[in-house]
């Protein structure tokens, strides 16, 4: 963790309540438009977790969500044109079993401390 902070070119972009609300709304809208099935999301102050099912490559899903959220934040004047909002990396984990999906959803919604902006589809896989 310390290495990443030392190597960073700018300070972390903090997601206050208006940012988090807009990001969650944008993720939901983007998932619907791209036919991704959003299972759960939790937008925190310094990061976010998203669990979804999608027919496309996970990296392109993450890229599409980052792009849509960046545009929404800038259009709403919640981020400047030159501000780095996202890290240049992201952690993608393939969940290939129903119990893994359920465990991940529980972690995202319950294992992150006090809930901030969250979403859960209520759907579990059989």
* Percent of sequence in beta strands: 5-15%
> Spans of 5+ residues with little confidence (pLDDT < 50)?
1-7
User: Total strand count, please?
Assistant: 3
Q: Ends: how far apart?
A: 37 Å
Q: Which structural class do the helices and strands define?
A: alpha+beta
What portion of residues is helical? 40-55%
SS element count, helices = 4
Mind describing the biggest β-sheet? Answer: 3 strands, antiparallel
The gross shape turns out to be globular
CA radius of gyration: 15 Å
Structure description:
There is one protein chain. With 126 residues, the protein is an alpha+beta fold. It has four helices and three strands; from the N terminus they run ααββααβ. A three-stranded antiparallel sheet has the order 2-1-3, sandwiched between helices. A hairpin with a 4-residue loop joins strand 1 (37-43) and strand 2 (48-53). The termini are far apart. The relative contact order is 0.21. Residues 1-7 have low confidence and may be disordered.
Feature tags:
single chain; about 130 residues; alpha+beta; three-stranded antiparallel sheet; 4 helices; disordered N terminus
Brief description of this entry?
This protein has 126 residues and is α+β, with helices and mostly antiparallel strands. It has 4 helices and 3 strands; from the N terminus they run ααββααβ.
